Amino acid sequence: MVSNGNQATLASRINQGVGTDIPKPNRIGASTPFDFEARNLTAYGGLLPVATMLENLGFQQLVEETVTVRRQTRSMPMFRFIVGMILACYVGFSRLNHLRFLKSEPMLTGILRVAQLPPQCTFWRFLASLHLGVARQLLTVQWRMRERVWAAANVQLAEVTVDTDTTVHTLFGNQMGGRKGYNPKNKGKKSYQPILSFIAETREYAAGALRTGDRPSGQQIAEHLESVAKGLPAGVKVVYARADSGFYCWQAVEAYEKLKWRFIVVARKTARMVDELQSAKWKLSPRTDADGQCEFIYQPEGWGKPYRFLALRYEKPPESKDSDKPEQYQLFDTPEYTYRVFVTDLEDPLHTLVLFYNQRAAAENLIKEANNDAGLTAHPSNRWMMNANWFQIAMLAYNLNCWLQLFSREQNVTVETMKHTTLATARLRFLFLAARIWRHAGRVGVSYSDHYQEKGTFQQLMERLRKVVRGPDGFAPVLSAPLRA
Q1: C-alpha 341, offset from chain centre
Q2: pLDDT tens track for 81-123
Q3: Measuring CA to CA, how many Å separate 215 from each of 211, 220, 336, 462, 474?
Q4: Number of Cβ within a 10 Å radius of residue 55
Q5: How far apart are CA 209 and CA 376, in angstroms?
Q6: 360-370 in b/e burial notation, b at 16+ Cβ within 10 A?
Q7: pTM for this one?
Q8: 335 near 313, Cβ under 8 Å?
Q9: What is the enclosing helix (H) or strand (E) of 238?
């Protein structure tokens, strides 16, 4: 076959690159001009999901129905004062004098619907006007909010684990209620000893209260456990409780029995306990880190009936025997061994229960998060009522982060695979977002950067929160897959 085409004709070239221009990097240096003429710019664009969640879940109605305040406020309604302090803690400004840094913050003032925040003294007077019962009322608000969040986020947990612990807040002033008590880091200093309980599966703050520096009595522990039970959603049928040796008393065990909770608590050292351990039949413990294990039925003095006790013992190295070292946390010593003892009403094997209790260490991390990130230790006054009310405000700010994570979780996640993002990390990823608030044709909107790496997660969260609607039978779930164990 003969071709009449020109043999010198070159083949057509193929495009080797994208037709669009390659953007040049922004060159920022010492001579870069700057000004202060831009308007409605905010560094806290991540407050939009928080405001959406509170509005669609009826938080304002809850506060106005539950919290009773006699003081007549002028600059803002009572509800906005409370929300302003909660959002300030959530942002990271945990002291009232820090509110001056948010005075003209457009995102916060837009949520509170004011031109600018009142001065610090106004917030201080408002907090001082709240009676002591407001702390209990704010805790009730959190209980009812939890029910709504679980319904809307499709959290269906029939079994939960409640971890109870105390923490020490060292005081450096003359705060009311300060006592010299257990304070290992600052011995001899006055302190508060708040008591807190967390739901291990969702990391939520369940209940708690500010306490004096004295050790909690058995009656106070029992009252706290009853308040935790009131705050659990109606769908919870089985509760497992874990606590350290500070809650080892008959009143606590009796409260567990009354509430029909299953429990495991660390035991304290007594002379009778040591005799029981020395006369027990010990065997090797290959499935724990201990050198030996045993279990026995024992009724401590003053208890209503005997219970199952589990014990682990660790051999002391020769150089540490007969030493005067202080007892370690959750351990007590004899000249030859160090013991770790639990009392429980569970029937599982010893190694399984020890592993189950060891997971309670997560509660200590949650307390650290509340203390350091939510501003729980930033007591605003030397007045007891103000500090007790601020305690619940700070913990409400802590729970905001937990509730947002329930809405932003993946559909196929379970309790075991769901990861917890601390409040400090959540601020860096989802809260500190540069944004511009714009107005056009009577509408107000928020524009974010197109370089935001969590754009997909943020959009998914906003879509779910905007679907939250209250129907005749309560809040319908916005996630199709329920959260279960």
Answers
A1: 29
A2: 999 999 999 999 999 999 999 999 999 999 999 999 999 999 9
A3: 9, 10, 30, 44, 41
A4: 14
A5: 11
A6: beebeebbebb
A7: 0.90
A8: no
A9: strand 238-243
